Amino acid sequence: MSRIWYKNYGWKSNPFNVRADSKIFGLDKERELLMNYVLGGNVCFITGPTGAGKTSLLKWLQSNIKGHKIIYLDSSATNDFFNLGKHLKDHRNFFELIFHDFPRKVVLLVDEAHCSEKHLKDAIKLYWDNAHVKSVVVAQIPSPNNFSKVFRARAGGRIIRLSNISTEVANGIVDLRTKNKNIFERDAIESMLYISDRNPRKFLENCEKAAMKLAGKWNGAKFSKADVEIIFSHHKA
User: Fold this and answer.
1) Which of 115, 135, 161 marks a domain boundary?
2) pTM above the 0.85 mark?
3) Are residues 232 and 195 in contact, defined by beta-carbon separation less than 8 angstroms?
4) Among 64, 146, 184, 188, which is least packed by CB within 10 angstroms?
């Protein structure tokens, strides 16, 4: 049986898996804002292109907030028959089931909210207005204009916008994911980040592609810009 490529580097698993992860490098300001908005009982938005880290930021919040009931909702997986009230009640614990109609101190995380139907958007507003939900975080690709003017007014200026990442952050992401066993020189990181349009998910995909292609050449020395550019030679500047 052939050796799995990532084991050549001494990694137990693929560090460049693009699945959303609660371990985030960078976004310090965004994380602080998000935590403060939620603890303050607010409605807020996280916007940004696909792969910018919106879901990872939600996962980070889910892993780090204390004393709250986090309910994550992927809007793309809902349909016309989805009932938010029932969904909230299904998350009650034994005590809440006896004494409360709804669970307490709920933080509702609405991912892929651009896929939300009107009835779901209306229900989110209703349950927040009636204090059945303490805080709502809406994550989506476009700006909040697909929500009603009234709901946008609830959020006010509480919009966290995610965009491109710097070389410093990209390097930190690789260090974090490889547990400081980064196999790329800084110039190689810069090259892959450039062809990834500085998008975090595309960058991880290209790191995986380069690492797989170069696994057989690994001798303990970090790969340079020249090494990775051979792999991406088809890319047009």
Assistant:
1) 161
2) yes
3) yes
4) 64
